[in-house]
Amino acid sequence: MSHPTPRRWFAWCRRHTRIGRGVSFGTTVLAAVLVLGALLLPDRPDHLDPAAFVRLPAEGIVLAALLLVLPYRARRAVAVAAGVLIGLLILLKCLDIGFYSVLFRPFDLVLDWGLLGNAADYLRETSGRAGELAAIAGAVLLGVAVLVLTTGATVRLAALLVRHRTRSVHGILLLGTAWGTCVVLGLHSAGRPVAATLDADLLGDHARQVRTSLADARLFGQQAAVDAFARTPPGRLLTALRGKDVLFTFVESYGRSAIEDPAMAPRIDAVLKESTAAVRAAGFEARSGWLRSPVTGGGSWLAHSTFLSGLWISNQQRFRSLTSSDRTTLTGAFRRTGAWRTVGVVPGVLAAWPEGRFFGLDHIYDGRHLGYHGPDFGWSQVPDQFTLDAFRDKEFARRGRGPLMAEIILTSSHYPWAPVPRLVDWAKLGDGSVFQPIRRAGRSQEEVWSSPESVRAEYRSSIEYSLHSLVGFLQRYGDRNTVLVFLGDHQPVPTVTGNSPRKDVPVSIVAYDPEVLDRISGWGWTRGLKPAADAPVWPMDSFRDRFLKAYGPRPGR
Fold first, then answer.
1. Strand pairing partners for 406?
2. What is the pTM of this model?
3. Are 82 and 154 in contact (CB under 8 A)?
């Protein structure tokens, strides 16, 4: 049995000591990079660039100074607390980035937790139950890992500061002086100040948001208590539309960008001109304007509720309060008269929808009851053309039917616009199987989202498809008693809008009877299906009252 010689023993020790020191140094560097990166991480996707991380964070300098002067036990406790806080800030910033990417606003710490459930539903519908569970598990594990890593990194750096106290003091004084100099000189990097207070500003913004959100329920209650049409007798509602089929149709994500963005405007402009000519040839006329939606990127049900209720429904708390009230909705007003059968066509709903009763709908056709047996197209379960034809088949063909009022939600232009359906012969729609080859030939989500240009192109194609479907339906099945009101519910996601802050959506009223449009002659709307750039922009919650006043007597008379 051989034994190591003393020379070999000391060589082994030196070699492994160097390895240990290398590992220790590497770990310290990673800890510093993690903490510094966390403090400088922006909360908006459009700010995620290298320049964002070439700044001096005031919070890091103050934290380092504090850890240096505290006694051992207090220092360790503060380091742990700071590490947890930094980890939570990372998670909050990631939520903000996600919300800015889709809804173009930060995460609301009071009101937005329910939307995470909607995100899980979206994953289940697009990726299946396994994909949803995998995403949830991954998010939870990642969150725990972030908290553990930031806490460990902060504790390690705190120990390093004390171990090299003199150098640490000099470094903190140097960084503090540099930070102050940058403030005095107003130095900027890529349009952002080098002397950063990002996390302090972020916490301040969210604190103000929390106060506002907590007070929102009381404010909404005061607004909802005022209902100009609550006591209007049914016989005096909508008298100018008696005998008409009135169809309120929402085109998903049909926003101002589709009409005015240079990359999309030429094609959409051509579709709108062609469609205006087509409806005129069929005997119809149209007037168009703009509405400002309460949301952008998503939250369609909030926009629908705003349009129908005459209240600004900008969050889930307001939506729940609204749907548990007895507010007069636009659709509910038709039902109150007793002069219309009221139906809802909601192909994106695949489960019970109790809110339909609140909106005054006698019957609801959801995605399970339209008779569709073709493929889905991304999130959209039923192509718009089939949705409209199924509505016609189930309602227009009813024997001895009276006037109809319908709320119809068209979903083919819903995010992520992959793949997009195409028009087929209306006579060959059948049960929807005709869409199978179109679905197979369509582009995948991975292909579409490979570049912003590709996303915009497919979004534009989806709007073209929806508009062609709607106008084709009107040409084929509309008559002299048809009144079509159609609008977008919100702007698409920032990838399409280029982070435009505008929330405007187009709205059009199309009618065969000229007296219907004469009633809104004072609105200043544009002739045709394309609203002029300078046409009026109304808040979406103002439409209910304007519409009810235009087509019936004034409230209370």
1. 247, 343
2. 0.85
3. yes
